[in-house]
Amino acid sequence: MKGKKVSQSKTIMTQTVFPNDVNNNGTLYGGQLLNWIDMLAGIVAKRHARSHSVVTASIDSLSFLHPIYQRDIVNLEAWVAISY
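Now predict its structure.
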């Protein structure tokens, strides 16, 4: 099977932060961000594997560096870096 270029799996997802996505401080729930990341990872994996059967086995680490507020627009970008 011929290898694929990174550009073939690259995906960009844009989300708007709505009131139900934020806590009492007006910042995005970390779990919501993780949900978006997981959805994007699934899309990228499906494109790479050409399969509808993909799962997230683990996420090694995630650091929340800055708060994300209601009405912010979040751009997520992902691609397959390596596969075995």
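The longest strand covers residues 11-16.
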